[in-house]
Write a structure and sequence with these properties.
The complex is a heterodimer of chains A (120) and B (111). By secondary structure, chain A is mainly β. Chain A has no helices and 11 strands. Chain B is mostly beta strands and 111 residues long. Chain B is 0% helix and 53% strand. Classes of the chains: A mainly beta (120), B mainly beta (111).
Chain lengths: 120, 111
C-alpha cells in the first residue's frame, strides 16, 4: 500500500460525457502528479501540483483540467470524452518538489492503484 | 521533447535465468529510477540512481546510472515467478524537472 488513494477504481461512461477522478496523496506529501497510461503505452505525464499550485504541465489536453485543494487532495476533470481517452489514470505523490529537494527523495513518486476509465 | 527508449519491449524467460534491460536517451538525466508495475496496481519504485556511474543493488536487482548520464540498465539475477510484471525506467532532468517514463519491458517468467 503506497498510501496514495484514488477513486473510483473503475469508471465506464459514454463519449461526450465528463468525469472527475480523485486522488488523496500520502500524508504529508505536498506534490501530486497525474499520469495517463494507455494500452501498450508508458506513463504519460499530464500535470503536477505542489501545495495547491500548478507546477508543471505535460501532454495534457485542453479538455482535461486538474486542481489541488487546500487539504492537498487533487481532482482530474476529463470532459467531452472520446474513445481514445480510455486509459488508466494514475495519481502519484511526493513530499518535496523534485527540483528543490536534495538527497534520496528526489524523483521518488508513490503511485496510487489507478482509475481505469472506459469510454464507450 | 525528452524521450526514453527502453528495450527490450518484452521478455520470456525461464525461472532461474538472469535478466537485463536498459534505457537510453538522447538527453541527459540527473536521476534514473526503475519501477515495477504488477497487474491492477500502480508502479512501485525498485531502485533510484542519483550519480553518473552509480551502481546500486536491491536484493537480486542491480541497476546502474550510465557514465554519460544518457542511459541506465537494470539486471535481475536468478529470476523467480513473482518477478513477472512491467518494468519501467524513468529519468528526471531537464527544465521541467518531471519524471519521463520509458514504455516498459514486460517480463514473463516460466516456472
Amino acid at each position: 500500500d503506497s498510501g496514495v488513494t484514488q477513486t473510483p477504481k473503475h469508471l465506464i461512461t459514454a463519449t461526450g460525457q465528463r468525469v472527475t477522478l480523485r486522488c488523496s496523496p500520502r500524508s504529508g506529501d505536498l506534490s501530486v502528479y497525474w499520469y495517463q497510461q494507455s494500452l501498450d503505452q508508458g506513463l504519460q505525464f499530464l500535470i503536477q501540483y505542489y501545495n495547491g499550485e500548478e507546477r508543471a504541465k505535460g501532454n495534457i489536453l485542453e479538455r482535461f483540467s486538474a486542481q489541488q485543494f487546500p487539504d492537498l487532495h487533487s481532482e482530474l476533470n476529463l470532459s467531452s470524452l472520446e474513445l481514445g481517452d480510455s486509459a488508466l489514470y494514475f495519481c502519484a505523490s511526493s513530499h518535496p518538489p523534485p527540483l528543490l529537494a536534495g538527497g534520496g527523495l528526489v524523483g521518488e513518486l508513490f503511485f496510487g492503484e489507478g482509475s481505469r476509465l472506459t469510454v464507450l | 521533447g525528452q524521450q526514453l527508449n527502453q528495450s527490450p519491449q518484452s521478455m520470456f524467460i525461464q525461472e532461474g535465468e538472469d535478466v537485463s534491460m536498459n534505457c537510453t536517451s538522447s538527453s541527459i538525466f540527473n536521476t534514473w529510477l526503475w519501477y515495477k508495475q504488477e497487474p491492477g496496481e500502480g508502479p512501485v519504485l525498485l531502485i533510484a540512481l542519483y550519480k553518473a556511474g552509480e551502481l546500486t543493488s536491491n536484493g537480486r536487482l542491480t541497476a546502474q546510472f550510465g557514465i554519460t548520464r544518457k542511459d541506465s540498465f537494470l539486471n535481475i539475477s536468478a529470476s523467480i515467478p513473482s518477478d513477472v510484471g512491467i518494468y519501467f525506467c524513468a529519468g528526471l532532468g531537464g527544465s521541467q524537472g518531471n519524471l519521463i517514463f520509458g514504455k516498459g519491458t514486460k517480463l514473463s517468467v516460466k516456472p
